[in-house]
From TrEMBL:
Keywords: Signal. It comes from endosymbiont of Galathealinum brachiosum. Pfam families: TraF_2. Residues 1-21 form the signal peptide. The keyword Signal applies. It comes from the Bacteria. This is Conjugal transfer protein TraF.
């Protein structure tokens, strides 16, 4: 039931807008607010989810940290697809040449378009010792991709007087995982080198949906069955080098053990190794950071590939209030995703409360909210 609920939520999120490939990760409110940087920044809970090499850096010198259930959603609209679908269905069977021409124009606009959305809940607990840090994480990543099936667009001609239509296909993938991050540090040429690994157990489930565009209805999704694609074990590894007290660089490799899951209809869901580098200046009251994907991520189904460049900044007022801003862009070849801008606030109220908002061109939005403790 939980897996179906997550998948349905993801499909509903995707139905809100036309979305393309999501950037790498979506781990916590701080990272999202700072443009989705995480490789060389963050507290130990962030490191547990993003780069285990940061576990021993421990910016706040915490002994324990708990990230309570956190939730993020993302939908990026750069094609006005939902409005076009609503308009197409509202016309119904065309009764005038103008209505027919308008439906044909809509089909041409939708051909090659895609929809993708995400819902991401997670929790984490980390214990930091003098020489060794360990933790446990639980995370779900529900990603949905939809689009017009290639070759399915039907447009009437003088010799084939049929109603215009097309076939909409959607694939929802729920990736639930348990991680055991662990890390330590050592001296390297007078600098601190922090290393970490996160073995992960990953379960994959899917939902597939197909319908004529003229009758597609999100309400039909609740009646679909999920498909168990199986599980696998992989590992992430990361390193962070503190060059000087205020500057560090990092590298993380996700899915060092690769796997591929295939749906009953023959769609492959690939878990390939992914590399990302980052750097950060940490002045205490201010942090400046940048991350960049070194490898391109393939689309789930219909959307663009993803290769993200992210930059962000945080201003910390007495460890009580933090103001964050960020920017990210998809540099993948041929990608047409809008650039995203983010802003967020962090509060220490005896517990952490962090919120982040993301926006881009053409009604593109995302949000993340979380609470937690550190001591």
């Amino acid at each position: 039931m939980m897996k179906r609920s997550l998948l349905t939520a993801g499909l509903i999120a995707a139905s809100l807008s036309n979305v393309h490939a999501l950037p790498y990760g979506f781990f916590d409110a701080r990272s999202v607010a700072m443009g989705n940087v995480s490789v060389a920044t963050g507290g130990i809970t962030t490191a547990a989810l993003s780069n285990p090499g940061m576990l021993s850096v421990n910016e706040n010198d915490d002994s324990y940290a708990l990230l309570l259930p956190a939730l993020g959603v993302q939908a990026i609209d750069d094609g006005n697809v939902i409005d076009l679908v609503d308009e197409f269905q509202a016309i119904g069977t065309p009764t005038t040449p103008e209505e027919l021409d308008r439906q044909i124009a809509i089909l041409n606009d939708l051909d090659g378009a895609s929809v993708i959305g995400a819902v991401i809940p997670n929790v984490a607990f980390v214990s930091s010792g003098e020489n060794f840090t360990w933790g446990i994480t639980a995370r779900a990543d529900v990603v949905v991709s939809a689009g017009i099936r290639e070759g399915s667009v039907i447009i009437p001609t003088p010799t084939n007087l049929v109603e215009p239509d097309a076939v909409v296909d959607a694939l929802g993938v729920a990736i639930t995982e348990i991680g055991l991050p662990m890390g330590t540090d050592l001296s390297f040429a007078g600098m601190q080198l922090s290393v970490g690994v996160t073995p992960r157990f990953v379960q994959v489930d899917s939902i597939e949906y197909s319908s004529p565009l003229s009758t597609a209805d999100i309400e039909d999704i609740k009646d679909l069955d999920t498909e168990d694609l199986g599980s696998f074990t992989t590992v992430d590894a990361g390193v962070v080098l503190s060059v000087i007290d205020t500057f560090r660089v990092g590298l993380v490799a996700k899915n060092l053990i690769e796997d591929t899951k295939t749906t009953s209809s023959g769609i492959d869901v690939d878990f390939d190794t992914h590399l990302r580098a980052g750097a950060a200046f940490d002045f205490g009251f201010m942090t400046l950071a940048a991350d960049m994907d070194l490898t391109e991520r393939d689309p789930i189904a219909f959307e663009n590939p993803s290769k993200s460049l992210a930059v962000g900044a945080e201003i910390d007022a007495f460890s009580v209030v933090q103001l964050r801003v960020g920017y990210q862009s998809n540099l993948a070849s041929g990608a047409t995703d809008p650039d995203l801008y983010s802003v967020g606030l962090g509060f220490w109220l005896g517990f952490n409360l962090d919120v982040a908002l993301v926006a881009g061109d053409d009604s593109s939005y995302g949000a993340f909210v979380q609470t937690g403790f550190h001591f």
